[in-house]
Amino acid sequence: MKKIIVCLMMAAAANCAWAADTKSVDTKNAVSNTEQIFKTKHIWDAKVLIGEGVELGKTKYGTRRMIPITGGTFKGADIEGTVLQGGADFQVTRADGDTEFTARYMLKTNDGVLIQVINRALYSLSTYKKGAPYMRSVLELEAPSDSRYAYLNHAIFLGTLEVPQLKEGEKPYVIIGVHQLL
What is the pLDDT of residues 108-132, one digit of tens each? Predict the structure, then answer.
């Protein structure tokens, strides 16, 4: 109990110090949160192979389906490897026509490190840019803390999604661009 009280006191002191610091900010020249421009750094592009979907059908939340992830590759400036077979993308198409995706799969870097990916995406046919659909995601990456990829545990990642036109004989796939929010 004594440890909990000490932790609460430390948190309160830190919060007071933060509040005091924020009061000294020159708000006249500060950029508001709604005007802030975010910068990103490209981390990798993944070619994720997908299998034939299984449809659950209409449910209370919308039409549900599951798309198996059957493999693939990924490559960036400082990282590359394969997408492991065995993951899946669970989807629900809502009553308003938008589709929510939650994909969970594993990557294996060329130096043998496993990385878990949870990718939550939104696909909307609502006009985004000149009639193009809105397709964006937020990725949660989890790498071993003692690996050279531990930095993936300490950032927010945004994704782009592309469903390319398949060439004859090509297996179905999607391209996922992964960008670190700076």
Answer: 999 999 999 999 999 998 766 677 8
